[in-house]
Amino acid sequence: ENVVISGVGLWTPQHVITNEELVASYNAYADKYNEENAADIEAGTLTAKPHSSAEFIEKASGIKQRYIYCKEGALDVNRMRPDIAERGDDELSQQAEIALEAAKKALAAANKSPEDIDAVIVSCAYTQRSYPAIAIEVQNQLGIKGFGFDMLVACSAATFGMHRAWEMVASGNARAVLVINPELVSPQVNYTDRDSHFIFGDVATATVLESAETATSAHQFEILSTKAVTQFSNNIRSNFGYMSRATDADPYGEDKLFHQAGRKVFKEVCPMAASHIEDHLTKHDLKPENVRRWWLHQANINMNLLIAKRLLGRDATADEAPIVLDRYANTASAGSVIAFALHHQDLSAGDVGVLCSFGAGYSIGSLVIKKR
Ligand code: CO8
């Protein structure tokens, strides 16, 4: 059975943090930290916190700003993390709230109503609780029958989620599947660490995958095939988890937040991603020059430029490989889906595109798709 992506939805938080705001807050925090710990820094038992810079951030990453679900607290030098009120069991969870925003947009774009959907997958880098699944909460809110589940694949959560939806529809086990990526990552960002404080932003994306036979939307992309690979690496890691209570580990320890060896990631992931994409295209007797659009993972502009250059043998234009991380920063698994959401309506029937994620795990996931 031919499967299409028949709709995509993008929810963007209303709060923005510019590089300048972020750096002013971090530098004030660093000054305070250095002053309070002057004796230990002088004695050499503690390292002084160096200043961050907006110029460095833009040059090293291409990021100019990021969106955040709750700005309150994140820039407060006495807090340095968002200040989000806990909700009761009878209230909608924050992650389900943003998932619903994107899901409704995807359903509208796909021209589908909840009765048409047989499964809901919430796939992202973190879920705010273990159970009941956020997907089941969303399913309940929308009044969808069938089933829902959560899955975590860090950077490749969105593509791997779409892979599972493709399998469900292709096998005839579901008519249509809603895949949602509520990337509410700001609570996991260490705003006191200059190496990583600038990297991430919050967003939610969603897609509807269904049989080509039932699709009626204006913009449909047939999935020619999917391809995934994982290879274990500690270079991007978060040790946050349910075991902390038993191990007596500090639940707020720095290793419980996102941390990485960014240089190593860059060196190792770029060649992996380029050869993965090349192999995937070869399966369809396609060459990189046959690809009209590249919706690539959005972690770092230099990574995308390098991967596109390896594939094409020249620089890709912004029209060929759109960049959204200047506005959105790295949004974990949602980056390639944001690029798709903002840059797909201009393609013509028969145009081929590649949607590809790469990052933590390591994990790489791609879909070769064709405009109908
Ligand atoms: N301001 C000023 N200077 C800085 C700053 C800063 N903010 N940060 C670092 N520097 C300094 C460094 O200390 C270093 O100084 P020195 O040379 O004296 O040691 C110098 O600047 C250069 O630093 P780097 O070598 O680290 O700089 P790079 O040019 O390599 O850029 C990057 C750093 C941007 C991190 C780059 O290496 C990169 O992007 N790598 C790839 C990273 C990547 O893709 N990671 C994947 C992220 S994970 C993901 O996508 C999803 C995970 C799950 C979600 C998590 C949500 C929280």
UniProtKB/TrEMBL annotation:
<feature type="domain" description="Beta-ketoacyl-[acyl-carrier-protein] synthase III C-terminal">
    <location>
        <begin position="281"/>
        <end position="370"/>
    </location>
</feature>
<protein>
    <submittedName>
        <fullName>Beta-ketoacyl-ACP synthase III</fullName>
    </submittedName>
</protein>
<dbReference type="InterPro" id="IPR016039">
    <property type="entry name" value="Thiolase-like"/>
</dbReference>
<dbReference type="GO" id="GO:0006633">
    <property type="term" value="P:fatty acid biosynthetic process"/>
</dbReference>
<dbReference type="Pfam" id="PF08545">
    <property type="entry name" value="ACP_syn_III"/>
</dbReference>
<dbReference type="GO" id="GO:0044550">
    <property type="term" value="P:secondary metabolite biosynthetic process"/>
</dbReference>
<feature type="domain" description="Beta-ketoacyl-[acyl-carrier-protein] synthase III N-terminal">
    <location>
        <begin position="149"/>
        <end position="215"/>
    </location>
</feature>
<dbReference type="GO" id="GO:0004315">
    <property type="term" value="F:3-oxoacyl-[acyl-carrier-protein] synthase activity"/>
</dbReference>
<dbReference type="Pfam" id="PF08541">
    <property type="entry name" value="ACP_syn_III_C"/>
</dbReference>
<dbReference type="InterPro" id="IPR013751">
    <property type="entry name" value="ACP_syn_III_N"/>
</dbReference>
<dbReference type="InterPro" id="IPR013747">
    <property type="entry name" value="ACP_syn_III_C"/>
</dbReference>
<keyword id="KW-0012">Acyltransferase</keyword>
<keyword id="KW-0808">Transferase</keyword>
